[in-house]
Amino acid sequence: MDPKKISDELSVAPQIQPEDLVNVAELGFRSVICNRPDGEAADQPTFEEIEAAAQAQGLQIRYLPITAGKVRDEDADDFGKALMELPGPTLAYCRTGTRSTTLWSLSVAKEKPTADILAAAKAAGYDMAGVVRRIVNGGKTPTDTGDAKFDVVIVGGGAAGIAVASSIHARKPDLEIAILDPADIHYYQPGWTMVGAGIFDPETTAKTMGSLIPKGVHWIKSAVAAFEPKDNAVVLDGCRVVKYDRLVICPGLKLDWHKVEGLVDTLGKNGVTSNYRYDLAPYTWELVKGLKSGRALFTQPPMPIKCAGAPQKALYLSSDHWLRTGVLKDIDVNFMNAGGVLFGVKDYVPALEKYIERYDAKLNFFNNLVAVDGPAKKAWFDVAKPDTPVERIEVEFDMMHVCPPQTAPDFIRVSPLADAAGWIDVDQATLRHKEYDNIWSLGDVMNAPNAKTAAAARMQAPVVAENLVDDVNGKSPTAIYNGYGSCPLTVERGKIVLAEFGYGGTLLPSFPKFILDGTKPTRAAWILKEQILPPVYWRAMLRGKEWMIKPERVSAG
């Protein structure tokens, strides 16, 4: 017997034998539910035999037999009622445990988020894809059969989603394309670093979603609850279903603020801020201007994160302001990095290290922020140096810029499209899903080993568009993504180290060295970031104008 924990109240198991009930009681279970009808198999003990053995151990037991593949709504209600009436924890069993898990999933559907239910079942080894629509529908069988249908459905209306919609529409205007996204506002997130340094006004980084959806592309203003790739369907919150011929997945990352104890309660006050949020970036600038002495912490969580350079960009621009205003000598600047290097591509590190020296900033590697007490101005870090036991340290601060831990959204991580780590599983060259030929992914949630930046999405959009249209036309994919990503590291006001690189850290500069040497801080790169890239984003990338980003081709040889 090998019970699998589903929740604190319930574990499930395949068929048990009367002699297993001794062990069931020893494991701390107080009740048992049998979901397998008598007589399904010749070697199966009867419920009467199991009941006698359970009662001999002082266990309460309930018989709720379910025919395989026929879990009715009322069966789930009965299961939920039994769980409430029986003393817990409870062990439920059937032939494999699937029926018991299905009953639980449907019985808790009204009170638990769909992603949490799917994750609990998946962790126990059970796939609830077959009942996902019912889970989304509060545990009830949906009666609405009026499914919308499109040639191409795009999940996510951020940089990647709108760019790829525009690129597909430009190549094949007759395709019916829909973008699924519940947001009202679209943000130019690369601009928030500049907002936090008092260079951009926050309003310039936001536009209404409706103003950016390409003409001829449908916008369904709804969140995604789950995927049914075998049925070419996306299930929305509220159990509406959208069908597709081809699917493109590109939502943003989940910023997991709650993973740091006490952080949510103190964000935006007590000197704790983050350029990773539109409403907090102005507070960063307020803190920078106001700090005249004390300790400033800049944190970076474990990878992967959006724009890996953003945490240190905040450090450089803040320190530059303090240097220019003559107070840097009285400020203790600390970079608290959960990783072990300043930047992942070694060619750019020497230039960055010179600025670390210039600002007299302390580099604290393998320091991961785990807790904050805002009013007390204290933070705790787990220091996990290689081959050394983890040590928790307490650090006082006057200002702290936090980069939150980040993961794929819950509905991505629990989906049948994700790899073991929770990212959409794609071929890193074509960005096509490894199992489902009619699905592609780009942007932050797919598992290709590239930097998660808007510049990467800008390069990926035409690759996905080209390969998807090739597929529509009955051809094999012809476009290749080389892993390109860009990180304009704002090392001081007026100068940037323009990091451009692909898979394996290969340098992929957009300009000849005599025009712009990305490994050195330059004024030209600053002008690019401040004056050229925002209009390129709004007027080119999001409109399908693919300047300087022609995809590489599959070699004919």
From TrEMBL:
Cofactors, names only: FAD
GO biological process per UniProt: sulfide oxidation, using sulfide:quinone oxidoreductase
Gene3D superfamilies referenced in this protein's UniProt entry, alphabetically: FAD/NAD(P)-binding domain, Protein tyrosine phosphatase superfamily
SUPFAM superfamilies: FAD/NAD(P)-binding domain (SSF51905)
Source taxon at top rank: Bacteria
EC number of the protein: 3.-.-.-
UniProt entry keywords in alphabetical sequence: FAD, Flavoprotein, Hydrolase, Oxidoreductase, Quinone, Transit peptide
Chain ranges of the FAD/NAD(P)-binding domain: 150-266
Molecular function per GO: FAD binding; hydrolase activity; quinone binding; sulfide:quinone oxidoreductase activity
Enzyme category, top tier: hydrolase
Ranges of residues in domain Beta-lactamase hydrolase-like protein phosphatase-like: 4-109
Protein name from the UniProt record: Beta-lactamase hydrolase-like protein
Taxonomic source organism: Thalassovita gelatinovora (Thalassobius gelatinovorus)
Gene this chain is encoded by: blh_1
